[in-house]
Specification:
Elements (H helix, E strand, L loop, with lengths): L2 E3 L18 E3 L4 E3 L15 H5 L5 E3 L1
Antiparallel strand pairs: 1-4, 2-3
Amino acid sequence: MTMTITDDCISCGACEPECPTEAIFEGDVIFEIDAEKCVDCEGYFDTNQCVEVCPVDCVVAA
């Protein structure tokens, strides 16, 4: 399972540096997650780091 960022994103950028596989990037309007790079933080962390730092809870399972 990979993660996705909803339209509720406020483009704060908190999630981008937390991604161990650099799957998160700034899109045209909001931040986005490259599904091919996202590994749900498996092998890196016990929880999804992007979810942990998101101030508006807009990172959800795809």
